[in-house]
Amino acid sequence: MTAQTATQPLNRQTYQAGDPAPIRIVHIGLGAFHRAHQAWYTHKADANHEWGIASFTGRSPQAAETLEAQNGLYTLVERAEDADSFEVIESISAAYDGGNIERLAELLSQPTTAIVTLTVTEAAYNLGSDGQLDLTAESVAADAALLSQWWNASAALIGSSGSGRRGVPSTAAARLLTGLDARRRAEAGPIAVVSCDNLSANGTAARNAVRGLASSIAPELADWIDAKVSFVDTSIDRITPRTTDEDIAGVAAATGFADRSPVVTEPFHNWVLCGDFPAGRPAWEHAGAVFVDRIEHFERRKLWLLNGAHSLLAYAGQLRGSDTVAQALRDPACAGWMEEFWNEATEHLIEPELKVDEYRAALLARFGNSRIAHMLAQIAIDGSSKLRMRAVPVIRAERAAGRPGQAAARLIAAWIDYLTKASSDGAGVRDTEAERIMPLLALDGREQTAALVALLDPDFAAEDGIVEMVHTLRGSFQDQ
Question: Which residues contact 328 (CB under 8 A, 6 or more apart)?
Answer without folding.
Answer: 313, 314, 316, 317, 320, 322, 334, 335, 376
